[in-house]
Amino acid sequence: MSGEPVFLIFGKSGWIGGLLGDLLKEKGAKFEFATARLEDRSAIIQDIERVKPTHVLNAAGLTGRPNVDWCETHKVETIRANVIGCLNLADVCMQREIHMTYYGTGCIFHYDDSHPIGGPGFVESDAPNFTGSYYSHTKAIVENLLKEFPNVLTLRVRMPIVESLVYPRNFITKIIKYDRVVDIPNSMTVLPELLPYSIEMAKRRLTGIMNFTNPGVVSHNEILQMYKDYIDPEFEWKNFTLEEQAKVIVAPRSNNLLDTKRIESEFPMILSIKDSLIKYVFEPNARQKAEVLAAVKEMRGR
Ligand SMILES: NC(=O)c1ccc[n+]([C@@H]2O[C@H](COP(=O)([O-])OP(=O)(O)OC[C@H]3O[C@@H](n4cnc5c(N)ncnc54)[C@H](OP(=O)(O)O)[C@@H]3O)[C@@H](O)[C@H]2O)c1
Which of 24, 55, 58, 285 is most buried (CB neighbours < 10 A)? Predict the structure, then answer.
């Protein structure tokens, strides 16, 4: 396909959808936001006929508020958006040979005997082994179905991170705020580094599944230690075990390492998770340490 790409973004009001809009605007790319609900196939077709995209970026889906526990008690809504809706969009795109990038999740894996902490990561062809939360269950189902669509790239996003330490959805903000945190190494996605790669992947018309995380793992304590080193030398925190954590959440959460050979082969310059955190989060925040510290203290109410 030749000519300038035209992007249609689903998820305008969402975190990742909003960031994708900012990014495309910054790049001077042609794009529009969709207005359709994913369950409404005819509205999707109207959006597509209006914008005539070459590429759809699907960052729409139910993630639950205040967190994924919401999906445990709203199962039909979750199926309609995350499975039926997502497949509707993929199908409409396939019929028109439009490439779709789907911002999915890597929270469909959990360390197991073949993938223990410190062992090999889960590769793109591995079948999900974590369906402990209803959210993850629907995401695993849809990933498995989407991989048959020749026009779809599924990105496995994990524990997304942005620069702002007071943005409530930022994984770092969450663990700074919690009274107690578990301490487990995990793969994570530093959005300011990786979202631009996703646009490039769409332009390259990559398909199939992509583990969309920075190489390597970082643990909760390592992140909080970085926060202490770069921003607040007085910062203290308490740990608790997975068993203790289970008492304060409804559905279990996944912890894992995703293998990153595929993304590294496309983007050899990708930074390790720890280097990316330093470059995109801690160094920029350290340059305005006083303001950041005041804002975080106000957010934590102490
Ligand atoms: N944030 C995370 O921690 C995280 C981690 C891993 C993966 N992901 C995945 O990345 C994707 C985007 O996440 P996000 O954090 O940006 O989500 P978000 O902030 O919750 O935004 C979700 C977006 O989807 C839209 N939406 C929900 N149901 C819809 C439907 N039925 N039809 C059309 N639009 C619908 C919402 O619009 P309305 O507000 O109008 O409903 C909103 O714009 C999701 O697939 C999520 O699973 C997120």
Answer: 58
Asked if residues 260 and 121 have their Cβ atoms less than 8 Å apart, the reply is: yes
Residue 205: DSSP 8-state: T
Atom of ligand 1 nearest to the CA of 13: 43
- CA of residue 177 to ligand 1 center, whole Å: 22
Give DSSP secondary structure letters for 107-125. TT---BTTB-TTSPPBPTT
For the chain, give me the number of helices (H) and strands (E)? 13, 8
The closest-lying atom of ligand 1 relative to the alpha carbon of residue 38 is: 32
Mutate to test the pocket of ligand 1, among 9, 10, 15, 153 (most ligand atoms within 8 A of CB): 15
Cα-to-centroid distance, 60 and ligand 1 (Å) = 4
Q: Is 15 in the pocket of ligand 1 (CB under 6 A)?
A: yes
Provide CATH code, domain 6-161+187-218+254-271: 3.40.50.720
The pLDDT tens digits for 24-48 are 999 999 999 999 999 999 999 999 9
Residue pLDDT, tens place only, 153-211: 999 999 999 999 999 999 999 999 988 999 999 999 999 999 999 999 999 999 999 99
Task: Say what the pLDDT of residue 302 is.
Answer: 61
Reduced to 3 states (helix: H, G, I; strand: E, B; else coil), residue 239 is strand
Is the C-beta atom of 41 inside 6 A of ligand 1? no
Q: Measured from the CA of 102, which atom of ligand 1 is nearest?
A: 45
Domain chopping of the chain, boundaries: 6-161+187-218+254-271
> Mutual orientation of helices 134-146 and 86-95 as an angle, nearest 10°?
10
Confidence of residue 121 (pLDDT cuts 50, 70, 90): very high
